[in-house]
Amino acid sequence: MPLSRAAVYPYRRSGRVAARAGVRHYRLARYQDGTMKLICKPFVFLRHGETPLNRDRLIGGRTDVPLSEDGEQQARSAASILARHRWSCIAVSSKLRARQTASLALPGLPQLMVPDLRERDWGDLELRPYTEQTPYEQTPPGGEAWDDFCARIIAALNQLLQQYDTPLVVAHSGVFRVLSLLSSGSPYGPRIGNAVPMWIVPADSPGGWTIMPLAQRDEG
Predict the structure, then answer these.
(1) Is 3.40.980.10 the CATH classification of the domain at 28-219?
(2) Residue 170: half-sphere exposure toward Cβ, Cα within 13 Å
């Protein structure tokens, strides 16, 4: 039986986002030239499997929803690629969809929950159609500023990369937008597929990054 809208989309919060006490800490990820730097070590990124919000093309950041049936199957399908590797750490966003994906893709392995890898808070745009989404650089009403989101994600990744070699990061499409910004200079482009492992590796050029499917890297 399909879930009711109330069950699938459990809440909609309005109003101003609470003050972020950690913003000053996140800004430590910025260098003197104002840019944000990621430690130059490789890792693998996995977006969570499909959720009902993805299926219905609705914005979902802070909204905590489970995987759809298709999303569960997508996560299981990623296992064949991920099982080829030994992971120093499986770092997972605190959101249910990411935790479920990691559990289905790599059953029985321990997870390190990293709350700061959670998706961007889209404020009053939560649960609205994709067509109403504002440009990334604009702060949605009641939501999280793009610069604050980028700084939070980069700080969380840097903490992981300081401690682990080639970790697996299970998170969200917004996190991948930050990685795209570092790689290409723009967060825009096609939305990353659900549960497709991606190889993130420093490029030959200083500060550059190369992103490719992990399966392609393994075959090469």
Answers:
(1) no
(2) 30
